[in-house]
Amino acid sequence: MVVRRILLGLLLVCQAAVARSGDVHEDFTRDLTVIREEAYVMPRAALQRLDALRQAHTGRELGQVLVVTSRAYWWMKDKNRAVDAALGAERLGRELHDDDLLARAMLSHAYALSMFVHDQEAARRLIQGAARLAADSADPYLKTQALVTQGLLVEEDGDTAGGIEFVTRAVDVARAGADPDALQMALREQARLLAIVGKTTEALARTDEMIAAARARGIAGQLAHARLSEYGTAARAGNLKRAEAALKAAVDILEKLHARERLAVPLANLAELYMQSRRFGEAERAAVAALRISRAVGDDYGIQLASFELGLSQIYFRNIAEGRAMADQALEALKNDDQYVRMLLNYGHALGQVGFGEAALTIYEKAGSVSLAAWRKEKQSSYEALQRAWDNQKKQSELTALHHESVLKAADLQNARRQRSLWVALCATTCIAVVLIGFLYRRVAKANKSLQQKNDQLFLQSTRDSLTGLFNRHYFYEHVVPHHHRKAGAASERRAGAEGRTGGVFLLMDIDRFKSINDTLGHGAGDVVLKNVAARLAATLREQDVLVRWGGEEFLAYLPGIGTDEARQVCARVLAAVGGTPIALDDRALDVTISIGFCPKSLSPGDVDPDWEQLVHLADLCLYAAKQGGRNRAVGIVDAAALAPHVIAAADADLKRTAADDVLALATVIGPAAPPVRAAA
Question: How far is CA 238 from CA 244, 305, 309, 525, 660, in A?
Fold first, then answer.
């Protein structure tokens, strides 16, 4: 009886110990998950908590802590500690024969090598090895992370469509595995890539799902990360109102979390949004706060970004010298940043708004050259990626051929010993060789076809807008800008010699009240309007005219070899084509009009033609005048020969006054639905 009681007591103690060990493991997993999700916004606080976990655990759990530690150091841009932690986790994964831990560690190692060491080949090998291990894993977070990372790798090679395919698979895996953190990661990257290719409606829908999932998860750091991602997606989609709301929400969460090391950059971005809506006082306060915080935490990037935004705010407040000094110094430090071109454009716009037209044009020219250089670099990278794929295919074919050659030699040796079966073996070998040659020929032909398709795809992606099918800015910079200063032949010069005629005209067109269409009918209706307007413009212009989707609801057209009178006629046709017939939209007919600004290009002997940026800028000023004049009309410059530098500067400062003082003559063409308005001479 006593022995039975002792055994029963031991059994109860063992059950309690097992239950307690299960609770401890669950606590560890939950704590590590929260730290992992909050490491992006609070890496220093996360490292302190990770250090405590590292002291208390060994084996596989220690390896998991090291993986998250490497990621936290990665967010802090501490490359040496990020690599060391990842290598420690890799070592444990191999010692324990734990493929899941090894795959996680290899991905963290690859992140550090790619961003900080720039050893892309080593990073690529680590990612591919981790993907092979993750394919056999039952962990949905690991499988999702591997697919997302492969998508980023494919995107880096220039294949954005392939990247979207990978992250879409990652979203499906995360949903099937019911892992909300994995789904959050996959949706974040899917929304970003969809916004890059112009699928803004789908991107914002993914963002909505991501925000809802983050709220349901209840991890404040994850919600802040989701809000920052929402800001980036909305900004790419051109929805500045939503971008500002998302950024404010993220800043509020970061302030409540005391995440000062992550707060400076969002505040600087918020200052940029305030300036775009001309709330310069709020922009200055946000930039000052960002500068103060970034200096306190030693964030060099935040210091430069905040200094740049503060410099722009000073320019708008007419502290020109001080503002330009701050902006120039910050830009010099940020010239390798992904947003460098956008910052140059904002800088040029600020200078233009306060009357420094010449300086603004210089900045715009620099932005154009930097953008063109970046595009060429991206194009070269895409070509190199295709070349690598072709080289790998070629090496594989060579290895296959060598393998079959060794098989044939072995058969020859065997046939030498067996004379009787010589002809049978020879016939069999010949048949195999024929089949192999045919197989190799088909593979080479397939590879050539695939390479041609990718080249065609690259050309379309680099020159065409995905929504409207029109040319994009890259095409304009590559095929129109280099020929801007070339003169036409003798026949064209004689045709342009009459009074009021030029060697070409730039038309800048903008859909009237397009924002209200998006706000009231939705972005899907806005896309339908953009497609219809683009089709009507393309059908109205000549075959030799270049029509470009300039951005958002703006279109740029370059009409070579025509005069001002012909430009007026073209504008009248364009206004009638767009505004004369309503656009069919589901169960309604939507009346849409367009406003146009045009500027001619001189071809007279001895004239110095302004840069194309100046001509487009003047067309933009005329477009603004058309908007102010009531929309559904075209306003343009009559005489290209009058575009001397001092006239351009005066028009940039105040176009209406310049026209009123008879320094520059303007012409107005009224659309079909507008009330009659007298045209300015």
Answer: 11, 21, 20, 15, 35
pLDDT, position 510: 97
For 4, 57, 565, the CA distances from 487, given in Å and listed in that order, are: 108, 76, 20
Whether the predicted pLDDT of 572 surpasses 80: yes
Cβ within 8 Å of residue 282, ≥6 positions away? 271, 274
List beta partners, residue 597. Answer: 508, 635
Taking every pair of C-alpha atoms in the chain, what is the biggest distance, in angstroms?
A: 123
Residues 389-424 as b or e (16 or more Cβ within 10 Å = b): beeebeeeeeeeeeebeeeeeeeeeebeeeeeeeee
* Token code pair at residue 562: 């025509």
CA angle at 649 for the pair 646 and 569, rounded to the nearest 5°: 95
In the chain, what are the domain boundaries? 263-349, 374-463, 473-670
Kindly report, residue by residue over 138-195, the tens digit of the pLDDT. 888 988 989 998 888 888 777 888 889 998 999 999 899 888 888 888 998 888 899 8
How many angstroms separate the first and last alpha carbons of the chain?
A: 117
pLDDT score of 367 more than 90: no
Provide the CA 87 distance to its chain's centre, in angstroms.
Answer: 32
SS3 category, 369: helix
114, pLDDT greater than 90: no
Q: What angle do CA 257, 260, 263 make, to 5 degrees?
A: 95
Q: Phi first, then psi: what are they for 97, rounded to 5°? A: 55, 40
Report whether pLDDT(16) > 60.
Answer: no
Annotation: CATH topology of 263-349: 1.25.40
Rounded CA-CA distance 312/293 in Å is 19
The residue ranking higher by pLDDT, 463 or 114, is 463
What single letter denotes the amino acid at residue 330?
A
The stretches of 488-549 forming alpha helices (DSSP H) are 490-495, 514-521, 523-540
Q: Nearest-CA neighbor of 597 among 551, 576, 628?
A: 628
Residue 327, φ and ψ in degrees, nearest 5: -65, -45
Band (pLDDT 50/70/90 cuts) for residue 633 is very high
Around 19, how many Cα atoms within 13 Å sit in the side-chain half-sphere? Answer: 6
How many CB atoms sit inside 10 A of residue 383's CB?
Answer: 14
pLDDT, tens digit, for every residue of 586-618?
Answer: 888 899 999 999 999 876 655 566 888 899 999
Cα distance between residue 63 and residue 95, in whole Å:
11
**What gap in Å lies between CA 93 and CA 106, rounded to an integer?**
10
Q: Identify the three-state secondary structure at position 544.
A: coil
Q: 193-219, pLDDT tens digit by residue?
A: 998 888 888 888 989 888 898 888 888
* Separation CA 232–CA 342 (nearest Å): 14
Q: How many helices (H) and strands (E) does the chain have?
A: 27, 8
CATH number of 473-670: 3.30.70.270
Which among 316, 315, 309 has a CA at the least distance from the CA of 289?
A: 309
Query: Mean pLDDT: which of 242-256, 353-367, 562-576 is highest?
Result: 562-576
Position 33 scores a pLDDT of 85
